[in-house]
Amino acid sequence: MLKPKSPQESFYGSYLYDRIVPVDHLLRKINQVVDFSFTGQILKDKYNPDIGRPAEDPEFMLRLCLLQYIYGDSDRQVVENARLNLAYKYFLGLAVDAEVPDYTTVSYFRVQRLGEEKFRLVLEQIVGQCIDKGLEKGNRQIIDSTSVIANITPSSLTGLVRKCRENVLKTIEKQDTRIAKRLGLRELANAENVKFASTEEGLRKEVEAAGMLLDRVTKELKRKRIKPTEELKKDLGLLEKAVADREKGAKDKLLSPVDPDARRGKKASTTWSGYKAHIVMEEETGIITGVETTPANETDGSQLKPLLEEQEKAHSLQPKEVTADKAYDWGENLESLANHNTIANIVLSQLVNHRNAGY
Fold first, then answer.
1. Exposed, middle or buried: residue 31 (CB in 10 Å: 0-12, 13-18, 19+)?
2. Are 158 and 293 in contact (CB under 8 A)?
3. Inter-axis angle of helices 157-175 and 230-244, to 10 degrees?
4. SS3 for 108?
5. Which residues have C-beta within 8 Å of that of residue 65, sequence separation ≥ 6?
6. What is the pLDDT along the chain (359 residues), one digit of tens a residue?
7. Is the Cα torsion angle 99, 101, 102, 103 positive or negative in sign?
8. Residue 148, phi then psi, degrees to nearest 5
9. Helices 199-222 + 157-175 axis angle, to 10
10. pTM metric for this prediction
């Protein structure tokens, strides 16, 4: 069930908002262009009308997340600003003296209510409204990627394998403590205190212990002493990958079992651990019309066609011109743009020009 919306009219009416929030303020401009009332319908299946404590209105929470994005606030900061900043209160539809929810509701809404799938639907609705109002015409668009840093703690190769081994044993412990101890849970607790002559020796010993654990767990599964739960299969898969990634020439390396999809990325002289957000946007207005998130080691060029196909499917939008850097100079990209009569303003790359014969 949902909490009733807070009426914006209070003892002070709209007097303070009219006096304090300028008519040309960014938040007033957004309110004039975008109607966020669609939020409730999109997120309807994420709320139970009869069970649980009343939840915050989904439109209110989406607006709160938008404020957080626009002004770079943390969860705590956006709630504190919504409590003190009249422009925030105006945009949220709150009365001047209205209370705001606890900051923990922000992350819960973002992860549990919104998520990636619903966010894509929200983006499509907003872009659709911008197109209807003539703000998005698809004349010239820019495609590029930006880094998204994962919330993980970097560890040594030895520490990564050990953590994956620990996760397997702790998952087994949930089923049978004795089997977990017999497989090495107790010894693992003291592993960090063991000293080796070199880093290489420590890694070799840890990989050997991981291999032995995988063999022994396989035997326990065959004998049906433990069950192959989804959690255990996931942890075993991560341990196997962590071990395999230690081999010379291994690619697509695991960085953390906490966020197993995160990868090491590099762009120019910058490196990071996490993801890439691939974005297509209108050059004139800066309005984002499509976004795709991939592990950080994914190539930029591979995302040009999917991004343009996504916005064409959602909005029947095909740009007249596309601007991109040399990372997008792929033959198949140039061919696709030519087939759609789209002018390609793409920097040529000597590294891949051999793939672009005829373009």
1. middle
2. no
3. 160
4. helix
5. 106, 109, 110, 114
6. 466 565 555 555 577 888 889 999 999 999 999 999 999 999 999 988 777 678 889 999 999 999 999 999 999 999 999 999 999 999 999 988 888 999 999 999 999 999 989 999 999 999 999 989 888 887 899 999 999 999 898 888 889 999 999 999 999 999 999 999 999 988 887 766 667 668 888 888 899 999 999 999 999 999 999 999 999 999 999 999 999 988 878 889 999 999 999 999 998 888 999 999 999 999 988 889 999 999 999 999 999 999 999 999 989 889 999 999 999 999 999 999 999 999 999 988 765 554 555 54
7. negative
8. -125, 110
9. 20
10. 0.79
Structure tokens at 331: 């033959």
Q: Are strands 288-295 and 270-282 parallel, antiparallel or unpaired?
A: antiparallel
Residue whose C-alpha is closest to residue 122's, from 294, 274, 314:
314
The two tokens of residue 188 are 């693992």
